Amino acid sequence: MTDIMDQLTRLGVVKGTLSLRPKQPAKKTAYLDALQKTFPNGFIVENEYGPVFNNQVRMRLDNPHGLIDLRTSLEPNSLYCHITGFTDLNKSQLLAMDIETSGLSAEASAFVFMIGMGYFSDEEYIVDQLILSDLSAEKAFLRQIEITYAKFASLLTYNGRSFDQPMILNRVRFHRLPLRGFDIPNLDLLHVVRRFWKQDLPNCRLATVEKEILHVERGEEEVPGFMAPELYRAFLDSGDAESLRGVAYHNQIDVISLSAFLLHLNQVTREYNPESENNQRFQRMENVMNIRRMLSSPDPVDVEAFCTSNTFLNTNRRRIAEQLRVKGHLLESIRVLESLYEEGDCLAAEKLSLIYEQDQKDFDRALHWLMRSLELLDADATIGFWSRKGKMERLQKRLRSLNQKKDKENEQRQ
To answer: What is the rounded distance in angstroms from the CA atom of residue 57 to the CA atom of residue 59?
Structure first.
């Protein structure tokens, strides 16, 4: 019997299973290696379900995010608590979260392949960005999310109640995992923006909040969120994680912006005083009512009041110009848009081009303003590569159309 056991031992056979550790499949290891190569500052964490890649990003708090100083303290007052619905928010106990998914419908088997979870430490803002190496690692991926959630008291999201959290929980149920750590209070900032900023913004997307309120400038590596599923599939097909670099950057900025906007909201509510002439938010609320009264009045419109950024947001000024145009006050509309253009607003130049093309039938001036819009767009550092590319293509298409109309008009004159 001893001889047989000796032979089995020499062959590598061991008694029992405790010492056995299953080897990772070669393909799974290759995906992890690819992520490590693309994100050299990342590392692999392990839980009972397996390894997970964490592309951790650290940002010093003395580096502002747009106009927001991340060192700003979080000191909730009664108005802040009323707006957010939270009475005991603690800066160090808040976890900002945003996900990237393979699709928009959990019912269509979409899944989360990247999640950014951001939080404040003493001197840094840290984003733990988990990336799903392949679908076989999804259980470990979900478990690591739960482990991170457990360290914090509150969750900070943007449309997280309706999309992010349900998407995650759907995958937890799909795998029948015994995970109970996802029931965490969720402050969804989308509802706050809709309630208090909707009148001031063209839409309530997080990217719009970033640009119009936080003044965040995204880098060239930025890719639009709608491209994320295609780029993740490219990673799975090729095993090359370079396709995820722009997606990771997009996700990181989204997460940091959530925390930055919360600090901005806190600052606004702390400074709020309806009786103070310096309160910008109160003034904007009053200005919206004044705009409506002025535009509905039969009296001449004092257009110069709309030609300064000190009183109105650019979004409101563009809206005012459009309302003046609809009411037939073309000269006043042009004056407002020209004042916006002088401040570097490329959308104003595009709208001027439309007025001269559609209302004045002046194709030379329409071309002039369209070219000015293209120049400003090309120089705008706040727009990511893909967004700029899409807008450029749209404006260049208009440019070709305008040139054709001008040529046709010249032929008719001859």
So the answer is: 7
Q: Which two tokens stand for residue 197?
A: 């900023």
Query: pTM of the prediction?
Result: 0.65
Among 262, 260, 270, 159, which Cα is nearest to 215's? 260
Helix extents (H) in 11-56 = 26-38
Whether residue 254 is predicted with pLDDT greater than 80 in this model: the reply is yes
Return the number of other C-beta atoms located less than 10 Å from residue 158's C-beta: 25
Q: How far apart are CA 167 and CA 161, in angstroms?
A: 10
Confidence band (pLDDT; 50, 70, 90) for 108?
low
For the chain, give the number of residues. 414
Rounded CA gap, 10 and 2, in Å?
A: 12
* Mean pLDDT across 253-275: 85
260 closest CA partner among 304, 324, 210: 210
Question: Residues near 294 by Cβ (< 8 Å), separated by ≥ 6?
Answer: 301, 302, 305
Phi then psi for residue 369, to 5 deg, are -75, -30
321-357 residues labelled b (16+ CB within 10 A) or e (exposed):
bbbbbeeebeebbbbbbebbbeeebbbbbbbbbbbbb
Query: Hey, which residues does 383 pair with through a beta bridge?
Result: none
CA distance to 42, 133, 340, 405, per residue, from 402 (Å) = 50, 49, 23, 5
CB neighbourhood size of 128 (10 A): 21
Note the pLDDT of residue 235. Answer: 95
In the DSSP assignment, the letter for residue 264 is H
Assigned token pair, 283: 């003034």
CB 386 within 8 A of CB 223: yes
DSSP 8-state secondary structure symbol assigned to residue 68: B
Amino acid at the residue 377: L
Q: Where are the beta strands (DSSP E) in 164-280?
A: 186-188
Catalogue all structural domains in the chain, each as residue range(s) with its CATH number. Answer: 28-271 (3.30.420.10), 297-413 (1.25.40.10)
Q: Return all residues near 70 (Cβ < 8 A) that are at least 6 apart.
A: 59, 61, 62, 63, 64, 120, 125, 259, 260, 263
- Please report, for residues 217, 327, 346, the alpha-carbon distance to residue 340 in angstroms, rounded to integers and kept in the order given: 20, 20, 8
Is residue 186 within 8 Å of 168, Cβ to Cβ?
no
> Would you put residue 109 in left (φ > 0), alpha (ψ -120 to 50) or beta?
left
| 406 closest CA partner among 362, 375, 370 | 362
Which residue spans within 55-108 are E strands per DSSP?
57-60, 94-101
- 3-class state of residue 52 by DSSP: strand
Q: Is 115 helix (H, G, I), strand (E, B) or coil?
A: strand
